[in-house]
Design goal:
Layout (H helix, E strand, L loop, with lengths): L2 E7 L9 H9 L2 E4 L1 H7 L7 E3 L5 E3 L2 E4 L4 H8 L4 E7 L7 H8 L4 E5 L4 H8 L8 E4 L6 H9 L3 E5 L6 H10 L5 E7 L8 E5 L14 E7 L27 H11 L6 E5 L5 H9 L4 E6 L3 H13 L5 E4 L15 E4 L6 H11 L5 E6 L2 H13 L3 E8 L7 E7 L13
Parallel strand pairs: 1-6, 1-7, 2-5, 2-6, 8-9, 13-14, 13-16, 14-15, 16-17
Antiparallel strand pairs: 3-4, 9-12, 10-11, 10-12, 17-19, 18-19
Length: 419
């Protein structure tokens, strides 16, 4: 495929095209799109009928269905010099144009956009949408949506799929206490017969019906939700009610500062206990992928309860012995907090060093001189360097030494972070 024209269309059965778009369609012979696009565009395609030797009627053009796996689709594209592709809305807005650019970088690409679904829904609502924060959940995890919730975005546009439905979105919001939004759902936008727009002022799971696909969602914040900065220990559900089994708030904030999380992507919290460090990190740095480990089974319920209590969705809690856990499928960490080691600090540091990214850091808090020395020996054994130490005392508790070690990149300036 040397040339590709991608034309954005709506769900309307009565399409209107500018003259240059219509010219591109009329010149085409190889067309492509989803099955729904073919149904919509069939009346507009140039069709030349010829009589074959068998007396059957044949079309001169052909249509390539866009189905998964896409590798098969692009293999068919390669057989042709030029393909005209139809896509929903704006092909450069979470659309197929980006896929073509990635798979066929040498292709000469022309794009003719239409209104995408969130624009159409905003128009139906007479809603100025220049400040709208857009999240795509189409074939994607919850991560970006969770980030928007935690940040408290005032206006959120969401592209859905068959898993991340309006009802599933509502359930996730209510699970973590985000009932401070109005939800509007647009279904089959542009379809003269099937279009439906529904606004739900008070979010309740049983108030959100099932919607036909395709649909999209716009959330409008109705009130500001409180977001903690430094959660008091007394607010957490604790392990057996033991207040000493939680990282104190000033120590927690100092540790997060030393981890330099605004410049990191993946935090591992090893030995999370109540989940206080993971939750505080997620609330202050919602972009982070937080993976938390705890050997005690009680930790699973504690993390679930506390993350819901403070509105911190998206923390992956793994229960079991960290030293025997399968880490291969997890995002590699560029920041690590060791909250507990069960007397196996040296082995833990060794394993963490094997998976952590170059430029990553570990923060470890210690009360005793013995554990401080053990941490120094452990990081030295794997070639890491101790770069920062801060001593802090909270109320009548013993002073704690917060220690930071970094995995430097060979040949780099040790004072410069290299993620």
């Amino acid at each position: 495929m040397r040339r590709c024209t991608i034309i954005g269309i709506s769900d309307s059965r009565e399409q209107w095209f500018a003259p240059d778009v219509m010219k591109a369609i009329e010149a085409g012979r190889v067309f492509s799109g989803g099955k729904r696009h073919r149904e919509i565009m069939q009346p507009y395609l140039p069709v030349t009928l010829e009589s074959s030797s068998s007396g059957e009627v044949e079309e001169r053009g052909c249509w390539i269905d866009i189905t998964v796996p896409l590798s098969g689709v692009f293999a068919q594209y390669e057989k042709h010099d030029e393909v005209v592709i139809f896509a929903s809305g704006d092909p450069l807005f979470y659309g197929f144009a980006a896929t073509v650019q990635r798979e066929c970088p040498d292709c000469q690409l022309t794009v003719y956009p239409s209104f995408h679904s969130l624009q159409m829904l905003a128009h139906r609502m007479l809603l100025p949408y220049h400040d709208m924060h857009v999240v795509s959940l189409t074939g994607r995890p919850w991560h970006k949506f969770d980030e928007a919730l935690i940040r408290g975005e005032a206006l959120v546009g969401i592209l859905t799929d068959r898993i991340h439905t309006p009802r599933a979105i509502c359930q996730r919001m209510l699970e973590y206490g985000y009932d401070n939004y109005r939800m509007t759902v647009g279904e089959n936008l542009g379809n003269e017969v099937k279009e439906r727009v529904v606004t739900i002022d008070k979010l309740q799971t049983d108030m959100v019906p099932e919607f036909a696909v395709p649909n999209c969602v716009i959330l409008q914040r109705t009130s500001q939700r409180h977001r903690f900065f430094g959660i008091p220990e007394s607010e957490f559900a604790l392990l057996d009610g033991r207040a000493k089994m939680i990282t104190k708030m000033p120590v927690r904030l100092l540790s997060l500062s030393m981890l330099d999380l605004s410049n990191r992507q993946s935090l591992w919290d090893v030995g999370f206990c109540t989940g206080s460090v993971s939750i505080e990190a997620k609330l202050q740095f919602p972009h982070l992928h937080v993976t938390s480990f705890e050997i005690r089974e009680e930790g699973e319920q504690l993390m679930a309860e506390n993350s819901r209590r403070f509105g911190a969705p998206g923390i992956d809690a793994i229960i079991g012995d960290f030293l025997s856990a399968d880490l291969s499928a997890l995002p590699r960490p560029d920041s690590i907090f060791i909250g507990g080691h069960g007397g196996r600090l040296r082995e833990m540091v060794t394993r963490l060093h094997e998976v952590m990214l170059p430029g990553a850091c570990i923060v470890f808090n210690s009360v005793s001189e013995a554990s401080q020395q053990l941490f120094r020996e452990s990081i030295e054994a794997v070639g890491m360097v101790l770069t920062q130490q801060i001593r802090i005392a909270v109320d009548e508790h013993n002073a704690i030494l917060c220690m930071k070690a970094e995995k430097w990149i060979r040949g780099s300036d040790p004072m410069i972070h290299n993620p």
